[in-house]
Amino acid sequence: MAMPGTGGFRSAAITYRERAVADLERRTGVYALCDLDQMPIYIGQSVDGIQNRVRRHLTSARSDIIANRQVDVWEIAWVMAWPASPAIIPALEAALYHHCNARSPLMNGSVPILPADPPPRVAPEQIVQVMSDEEIARRLQASARLPRQIEHYGRLVDHYLNVKSSAELRMSMEAHFDRLARYHHGFLEQAGSAPRGSEDARD
Known about the structure:
Blueprint: H1 6-21, E1 29-34, E2 40-46, H2 50-58, H3 64-67, E3 78-83, H4 89-103, E4 126-129, H5 133-140, H6 142-162, H7 167-191
Antiparallel strand pairs: 1-2, 1-3, 3-4
């Protein structure tokens, strides 16, 4: 059992994630990295196996979306997988991107072109939880989530200004800011109304 200190929680979270990723689909295909609310935040493809690609994302090893600050690994609690042959992967990725992005803006950056005859949208063949229920509940607390995502947005802006200013990163910034506004409102709802007698509580 993890000790109550930060290091203990982190060690337990890493151990849980490593075991969960080991169960991920090994075939080629398309995958979605999903946040604490089980909403996709990134749609990707892998021609060397979904498990291998997702593991690189979650360990920040040779992952452009992590290096470019597009996605915060701290948020990723679920992975969805759609195994597919290499020939249909691009069309499937595009179809899933446009479906998911319409529900909640993704942080992919570039937008895949939707083919004229896209494949039918299907449910994921596999959904793997890569974070424990206890850890998800802890991170869903607005007092933990909002500061973390404010910090991440600041890193994304800094990367855009000082490392790489691209249209893809601008789109990721827009998507992240849209979500950040939701986290902000959630924080205010959990915090409740201003104390009676404060300046903010007066008419």
